[in-house]
């Protein structure tokens, strides 16, 4: 049997300003602040004022149910690290918190399966 190609890396959430190329290099940020490296680990911290609040527009459109449909505010922090010890801290809007956390777990599992560390 021919050897199986390694699985593709999981795609980061759209709008998080994180992207990954075919070689497994991760790019964080946009334009002149773009940081591209071969990343070995991603960590997500959710302690940066990630809150939920009720907006006037939501209260007027859905009434009492606005208490259950609160708007997410703040940021989550994504920390990416290379094997050499370089790190980059990147803030992602709270709207993408769940998707970003899911992606980070999938990325770490993918990296461990492909590279063994």
From TrEMBL:
Name this polypeptide is given: Uncharacterized protein
Organism: Streptacidiphilus pinicola
